[in-house]
Every structure is written in C-alpha cells, then in structure tokens.
Amino acid sequence: MTGSIIKQAHELLCFQEQTRIVDVGANPIEGAPPYESLLVEGLCLVTGFEPNLEALAALDAKKSSHETYLPYAIGDGSRKKLNLCRHSGWTSTLVPSELSLDVFSAFKENAAIIAAIEIETKRLDDVVELGRVDFLKIDNQGGELDVFNNAQRTLANAAVIHTEAPFVPLYENQPTLGEIDLCLRALGFIPHCFAGVKTGMILIDNNPWLALRQLLDADIVYVRDFRDPTNLTDDQLRHLGLIAHACYGSYDLACRCVVLLEQREVIPAGSVSAYVDLVNAALKQKRA
Fold this sequence. Notes:
The protein has helices spanning 5-12, 36-40, 53-62, 98-103, 108-111, 144-149, 177-186, 234-248, 251-263, 271-287, and strands at 19-24, 44-49, 67-70, 73-74, 79-85, 113-122, 135-138, 160-166, 189-199, 215-224. It is an alpha/beta fold.
C-alpha cells in the first residue's frame, strides 16, 4: 500500500465507489467540516445545502471538483419564514428564544433578527440531485429533527450521521437532544462519540463571557448499529470504517469493520493485521 495513511486505509477496504457525503447547513462558520481529510485526499463527493446566499457564494468560491453546493433549505417540505440574524450562524426558520437569551446574554446581539424572508423547504427525500448517501453532516440551527423525519429513504443506507443537538433550546420550540436521539435510534443509529461540546455563559456580575459549566449543545456522531453484523452491508462497513478512521480517529470502530469484512472474505486475508499496523503508524504520526 502506498500514499497517506488515510489513502492506505481506503485501499485496504477495497472500495468500489467514493464515499458520498451530504452537508445540510454547509456554512463553514465553525471551521473545517469533519470530513475535510477525506475531501483533501479526493476520497469523497460532497453535496452541500446552504440557503444563505452570501454563505453559498463563499462556498462556491473555494470549492473543489469534488464539491457541489445547492441553495435549498432542507426541512419538511413546507413553506417557512427564514429569520436572517445579525450573525449568519444564528439564521434559522425558528425564532431565537428570548427566555434563553435573557440568561445567555452574550448571544443577544448576534441573534438579533434583521430581516425575514419566505422560503420553500425541501425534504431530503425529494432532492433529485442526491443519489446514495453514506455520511450526513447537519447543522441547520434547530431544524435537524424536521430533516431526519423527512429523510428516511435517504438515510436508509447511510453509515454515519454527524448532528448538532441542543441540551438547552436557544430557539423557540427547538427539539432537544432527547427527541433527536429517539428519532435516530428508530432509524437504526446509535451514539458513537461527542465531536464537540459547547458550554454557555450565564450572566454573572454583568460579565456575559464568564463561561463555567452549563451545557448548551453538542456535535454528536451517530453510527449505524454495529453490534449485529447482519445490520450492515459490505459497503456500509467500508464507509463506516473509513469515516471512523479518517474523520474521528475511531480506530477501534474502524477495526471492527475491517474484522467483519475480512471474515466475509470481501477483503484479503491479513487485512486486520495490516490495519493494526496502519493504526500504529497513525498514532506515531500524531505523537511526532
């Protein structure tokens, strides 16, 4: 095997097709997406959705040949009001919660609604441009549950979902972690890891930036339930293994995928041993 460690992992898994990624709410306000390493290596195709036209233009300006961005607002297929906030990261079809903003007052200025427009939302199951989806990353400011409830066909073959889930609702009528968790479990996914946890700033002595311990929201990675091998096809195991390895450093989960694929004789004998060598190389690289 040759090339980077990620490319070697890809080669070891004997892929037939590139990993297909959907990004709902692709506005890169919080840095690089979790799948950046796959994109850099040219191992995936990304279809992103961003209804904020300014953010969409920024994405189009720097996209690679492996990326396509569409101006659709993904949701339940109904007509909604899109609330444009002073900071684009707050723009949502939901209204920021005054009850929460009175407590987490550092957010008030950015969350202020400066305009509102009528938009048509699209169900992910109705987007004709989509084919197979292996990995869904979503952050659409409170609309995650609407997306999941209207993407059951799209998610039927997906291996990984990376979603934002709130502990405290920052918008009115925003579904929280419990509702999102029940929905994704019903679709065949279980929680794998926290990719990031945000805490809030409860106003103390007029200092809105004094962050202590109050949970706000988290980026949570859900994966296709891997406990029963019959739940996963060969291709789902391949995509799950590569995403776990490249995007999250979840070498244990990736190794389980390699073990199952070797047992099924769809990758060569000795692949598990070769993957363990790759993991040791990756860990050595991280320590360097």
